[in-house]
Amino acid sequence: MRWYLRQINVVIIFVLLISLLQPGAIVRASISDLYLPATDYGTVIDVRQTELAPGAMYTWIDLQNERGLQKIHAVEFNPQQGNLEPRAGTKDVKVYGMKGVTEMAMYADSPGNRVIAGINGDFYEIPGFATGVPNGL
């Protein structure tokens, strides 16, 4: 009887180990069939997308070009949809000054005004004294 139980245990362990390897084979097969868009900027390695909120999609793309690995992050939404709107972040409601995206998002986030994405799009010159005054002012 003991010998019989050991044999059953060995078979169960073997089946469990095989089941661990199976998802990897499925993922490799699906990745090879995955459509990756062609670009003039390089070879696309990975594209992923997730919904941030109803009507707002976050897409990130990894691509390889002559300069190495490049990462592209984009947020898309329809501004005519009433529940989403873009807002420019500022440093304490001033036109000039420097503040991180996370700090600006925390300042703006409140009930009824949820921040779902932040994009670092600075337009001031950092070298030199780094005063935070925007270019052109």
Structural class: alpha+beta
- Count of alpha/pi helices: 2
Major sheet details: 3 strands, antiparallel
Tell me the distance between the termini.
88 Å
Residue share in β-strands: 15-25%
Strand order in the largest sheet: 1-2-3
* Low-confidence parts: 25-33
Strands, total number: 3
- The proportion of residues forming helix, as a percent range, comes to 25-40%
Number of structural units classed as domains: 3
Q: Could you give the order of the helices and strands?
A: HEEEH
Q: Choose one word for the global shape.
A: elongated
Which radius of gyration do the C-alpha atoms yield?
25 Å
Mean pLDDT: 77
Structure description:
With 137 residues, the protein is of the alpha+beta class. The chain has three domains: 1-34; 35-81; 87-137, no CATH class. It is 29% helix and 23% strand. It contains two helices and three strands; from the N terminus they run αβββα. Strands 1-2-3 form a three-stranded antiparallel beta sheet, with no helix packed on it. Strand 2 (56-65) and strand 3 (68-77) form a beta hairpin. It is elongated. The protein starts with a helix and ends in a 29-residue tail after the last helix. Mean pLDDT is 77; it is low at 25-33.
